[in-house]
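Before drawing any conclusions, I looked closely at one protein's amino acid sequence and its backbone structure tokens, quoted below without any editing.
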Amino acid sequence: MVYPHIVTAADPLKSTIRLEELFAVLAEQGASAAALVNSKLYGVLPFWDACKKAGIHGVLGLSVPVDFDGAALPVVLYAQNNTGYHMLLKLTSALSTRDVEAIPQKWLAAYQEGLLCVIPDNTAWVLTDRSAALGMLSGLFGERLFASIERPGGSVQGTEEAFTEFCSTFGLKFMASHECRYVKQEDAFAYEVARSIGDGFKLSDPERPKPEHSAAFVPTQAQLSEWFSDHPEWLEQSRALLMNCRVTIPLNRQLLPKYPVKEGGDKNELIRSLCLKGLEERVGKLAQSYSARLDYELGVISAMGYIDYFLIVSDFMAYARKRAILTGPGRGSSAGSLVAFALRITDVDPLAHGLLFERFLNPERVTLPDIDIDFADHRRHEVVEYVAKKYGALQTAQIITFGTLSTKAVARDTARVFGFEAEELDKISKLIPSRPGITLREALRESKALEDWIIGNETRERWFKTALKLEGLPRNSSIHAAGVILSPGPLVDYVPIEKGNDDIFITQWPMQELEAIGLLKMDFLGLRNLTILENMAHMLKRDRNLVIDYRSLPLDDKETYALLAKGDTAGIFQLESPGMRRALMLIKPSAFGDIVAVNALYRPGPMEFIPLYARRKHGEEAVAYIHPVLEPILSETYGVIVYQEQIMKIAAEMAGFSLGEADLLRRAVSKKNRQILDEERQHFIGGATAKGYTANEAGDVYDLIVRFADYGFPKSHAVAYSMISYQLAYMKAHYPVQFYAALLSNTQGNNEKTAQFMREMKERGISLAAPCIANSRYGFSSEAQQVRAGLSIVKGVPGTAVKAILAARKEGPFQSLFNIAERISAVHFTRKAFEPLIKAGALDVLGKDRAVLLASLDSAIKHAELVKPNEDPGLFDDMGSSFMKPKYTKAEPMPDGLKLDFEKEALGFYLSTHPVEREKEQRNKAYTALNDLPKKKDRERVEVLGLVEDVRRIRTKKGDAMAFVTLQDETGVASVTLFPKEYAQYNEILDKDALLEILGTAETRQGKTTIICKTIV
């Protein structure tokens, strides 16, 4: 029993076949061979792996169109041997990277070796005389050319007779085939829906391409035998063809790229000289401990064959430094390498921080090193482009990822194909809970409303059943956010590729499959916080001609630690959450190690030790060790095991493990496998007793290691990322204006964050100046003791108009509204661009009331259309257009209330004065500020004044109406709950933007404080 043509769901929306379901059926049928035939080489390794596990002979095929004088005729190519497999890699790559719809004959001629070619009984082959095409293929493949006949569901196709006759004239051998695109016959409809999702059609659309039949399921042996009972030899030919295909896909090779060196150059000498030079620059004269560690690391790196890799990373990091692209201090375990520090791959000195090389590269467990690099996110692509240019486009690729039909997506996409109305689509989104990882089955169990909406309605029941079948299938492909592959030779020798962005190819296989064949993946990660730091440094250079080198900031700055101890960490990487702030206020960091520890401890599980760490740090509790041997290792964290490296040091110190063995122990005990735990216990106690410790002492320490194995965090990663936290905290403590300007630029469009930073600025006496056509830049910028809002933050203003204003301003200040109009041209001077700018106050600098500017806008637009209709040199440019400038239109001054409303409309927040603040002054009464609510005791009485931002009305389980109101004042936002009794009383005044004085009680649940409304005045 063989299956010559299986299309799997790895070919997005061209099949609904999942491997686990498929192989259960294949095993049941006693299949001896199965061929994967997708339209690209998607899903090859998982299919191959599944075949091996099931004991089924796997065959690789590819369905491709071939170009015969403009006609794209389908063929199926099977890899007969490893040469054929490499030809398939090249063919699919060529088709997917070039702008061609079908494979030209000359490509097929170049890549036919080791391939079997099968002509399917497709209508295209008999519509007209295809003798020339078949003659060409016959000449190319000879005995390796076959014809396949399909009888879906047992029905003989109308073209079968003509097709067999035509192929017989060329002496072709016939095989039986059957295209499988779903597992069971009843899946035909779900497959049709999947195709419609992919093609963008509704089921009711007359233009929708429909499947030729509904029998593309996986048939049984009995069914196939019956369908081809008159030609059993065709079935035998299929079996012979598939069993004749013998391919091996080599896995777990080390396909490491090569670093280019001059002929005769020795890479060992090169890396050593670079390391010595780097260390001399970074730490001065080398102590013995540094020399010994360097020798040891270089020996391991060389023995494992990774020298090229380190040189490559060092090279592109040097490029980033040369281009002033900010890179992170390190990421993950690579920060434990002195070689990485010496080559400026990381900025963490592992000896100064007690980090272990074996946590990164273990000579006793050979795995590819993982050096991940963070770059300022807006410039990451520059480094990727440099690498592609240096090592060649054919050896560099980004990595494909497949988006799946997630729960909400599959529900909505299926509903759209079914022709559901927009209101129904919205209802579906609301009825499915938004919990991450939820499935449709769970949603149905959890949401009674969803169940009620579906049950009893035939169309909705069918919709839900179909969505269930499609849930989780690959939907589309995109590019991995960080991964880059470098290969030692042309990529197409190892992996299929396709067209990507910016002239950089992408692989047809995702990350796990690339790593399985041994290709090296490097992560080029974009980190927003580095962009923020880079932006701050630019502002300081521009404003004060001050150059900041983040790598040389003093790590003992008192102001920085004072800021952290207060929990003043909004905007600081990794230290922003309310829980983290509480931890900082408890620990009160006074040295860099405290930041590292709190970053490592603040995770579910380990965080229970934060109070203990704090008490011991402040001398409120004695530090205790279960054995004196632990003291030198655990004293830095007051006797608490915080880091994985500490576990490794304990095993080395007490049980005489090598650090490589200690790393294996760390990995093993974290898996909590009882058998492994017992084996390692014997190993540990044996080693410890050999060093003179008692079995009881060793057992106690081993139990401690097991207890903390899950809690341990890699110290190397914690140190590296804590450096970014420290740098941002240092900037906030010393350069708050630049700090807030950079943060506001980065959180543009996030009203909640903007409001939070504006409140903090106010408390610090830093004002936020309105956008201004004379002084603003594109984003937020720093000016003396204030932050200036950028022109791009004004809602609705096109970025092209902002750029045109900034470009024109270089030629000199703007004199009037009409002067702007004639300088930037009618292309950019539009109502859409300038009405919001006027409302935001960006043109106040012209000395005219905003009402006058709005009234004059039409005549200014006409002036631009007359004087400079486009960006070409204008008719009046040389003459100066002053003689024909229009006059401003008179208008009554704009009232303050309207000004504020317009500001909120244009900016998303109140800039000059918040209306609530003004109202409070007029009422002359003390209210609780909304951002002070968390300081209130539970059930404490509060009186607040605020504007209604949003009202969410719901019904209780009993069916009573109640509401949650989002209220804002000049300090922040809060949630107000109105239970049914209060809701009935005040429902009519709960309007958006209504000003309400609310009396109630503060209630804190899960760290969030809300107001329970009692009365509204």
Remarks:
- The first strand starts at residue 2 and ends at 6.
- The chain has a mean pLDDT of 93.
